[in-house]
Amino acid sequence: MKCIFCENINNAKSIEHIVPESFGNKNYTLEKGAVCDKCNNSFSHFEGKALTNSVFVMERCLFGLATKKGKPVKGKINDLVVEADSEFQKNIVTFKSVDQNNVKLIDKKTGAMAITVETFDKSESAVSKLLLTMGLESLYKSQKGLYEKYDFSELRDYIINSNRIDWPFVDSLFTMPNFKSIPTFHDKHLLNKAHCKLQFREYNKNTLLFKFIYGGVEMMINLLNRNLEWIMEQNFTKSNSALHPEHYRKKIKTMGNNEYKK
Question: Residue 113 — pLDDT band, cuts 50, 70, 90?
Answer without folding.
Answer: low
